[in-house]
Amino acid sequence: MDKKIVFATNNKHKLDEIRSILDASYTIVSMDEIGCYEDIPETAHTLEGNALLKAQYIKTHYGYDCFADDTGLEVRALDNAPGVYSARYAGESKDSKANMQKVLKELENQMDRSARFRTVIALIIGRKEYLFEGVIEGKLIDEARGNAGFGYDPVFVPEGYTKTFAEMEIDMKNKISHRAKAVEKLKEFLDEKRLD
Ligand code: IMP
To answer: Is this structure's pTM higher than 0.90?
Structure first.
């Protein structure tokens, strides 16, 4: 019988992506579908902390096994900023262009332009908590290129590639991305668990 797991998001793009990957093994349910319309506060200071906060909220208030994700851009020369603050780096309006401009400004005189995207997924099954991480290393260029994707995609070139994430086909990005890697680890874990 299919097992139900709540994904603590209402982001349709993320739901579609995860459903296509976990497909046969689990029924993935959104927050809407369990009647949860809260904007769960992300008040932790790490990606791990925020992912756990969201998953714990669902477990505590609704009782379901669940998982949640959090992602950040970590720039080496900026001591891993913006990191957990990536969405609001240039202010509460969550403006992607302003966020990119701020990062590029801060990197203006830096030789080291290396950066990485890091996704953390927190999973709660029963009373146990598990964390999965996906990382893609790369570098930041000094001018935005490309129209696909979102967030910092136009200024990020993954290692081994010449195109930015925003210049790649979405399928290509989704194959190599930080999120894809974290989700792959989650899938492996859930697949093994089914065999127990
Ligand atoms: P979230 O945790 O997935 O909501 O991501 C937080 C923030 O990180 C987003 O608002 C974006 O600024 C940035 N971000 C996350 N994933 C990506 C990505 O795949 N490309 C570019 N920026 C991203």
So the answer is: yes
